[in-house]
Amino acid sequence: MSKKGLLLVGHGSKLPYNKELVENTARLIADRYPSYIVKCGFMNMNAPSIREALDEFRHEAIDVLVVVPLFLAKGVHILKDIPAEIGLPEGEVRGSFALNGKNIPLLYADPIGSDPLLAELMVKNAEKALLGQ
Predict the structure, then answer these.
(1) Is the peptide bond preceding residue 48 cis, with omega within 30 degrees of 0?
(2) Per residue of the chain (133 residues), what is the pLDDT tens digit?
(3) What does pTM read for this prediction?
(4) pLDDT at 99 (0 to 100)
């Protein structure tokens, strides 16, 4: 069975909450989807950086690497900064990743965006707030 690499990219923050959220989300993905090898990387202020996390994948037996930004919407980081960090020209979502003397596909996924699951989560949080009023 082939393994897929998933690099979950967070923004990073001086406060611990962002890093914890990204790491916890990565653990949830890894636990629920065993065909993925999941690692985290951060734009700034936290370690590992995106490039350091990419280097960590060089020791894994994966057939494809997908970079998934844990961001809500497209902005400068999604459109310019992350592609530059992962070696993709602006506007491109497919490239290659050098791994063990060969190149494997590198894919860049969309941010969360508008999704019914996001709407459900917002209502869940509203209901939780209403219960605590």
Answers:
(1) yes
(2) 689 999 999 999 999 999 999 999 999 999 999 999 999 999 999 999 999 999 999 989 999 999 999 999 999 999 999 999 999 999 999 999 999 889 999 999 999 999 999 999 999 999 999 999 8
(3) 0.94
(4) 92
DSSP the chain: ---EEEEEEE---SSHHHHHHHHHHHHHHHHH-TTEEEEEEESSSSSSBHHHHHHHHTTS--SEEEEEE--SS--HIIIIIHHHHTT--TT--EEEEEETTEEEEEEE-----S-HHHHHHHHHHHHHHHHT-
Question: Which residues are identified as catalytic?
Answer: 11
Neighbouring C-beta atoms of residue 26, cutoff 10 Å: 21
- Domains along the chain? 4-131 (3.40.50.1400)
Q: How many angstroms separate the most distant Cα atoms in the chain? A: 59
119's CB contacts (< 8 A; 6+ apart) are: none
Tokens linked to 70: 């844990």
